[in-house]
Amino acid sequence: MQDTVLVAAGGSATALAMEFLLSDEGFTVYRAEDRDGVHGELDAGACRVMILDAAFPDGGGFPLLEALRCDPATKRLPVVMLIARCGYVETEKARALGADAVVEKPFAGPDLVDIVRRLARRPQARTPRVLELADDGRHAMMHHG
How many domains does the chain have? Predict the structure, then answer.
């Protein structure tokens, strides 16, 4: 399976630049311009890494990151958070909410590619196979994965 990246940075020039940069490096890139777009791409299940802009439309990237981490389907998805100014407070907030990496805008292309490539190779970036068996007679459930 080819490495896929979801760029959630609205319709910005930054999103377009990331799409070209990552595509040139062999990634399949999907873009989302709003929350509905993010959920649509994630529901398709093909993304290994997400790049999320803190200035994302529809309420911002921080609340979206928090929602992703609360959802069992996306809690393990590696997320790179883009922040305009990587001050201590912003960086710590992103990390506390579960960002796997924090990158300051403007970013260096090779650095972003290296981060995305590293995160795409992590085991949790792979879509886990889940097997759930329920026995209503015994009121028991077994979950594996």
Answer: 1
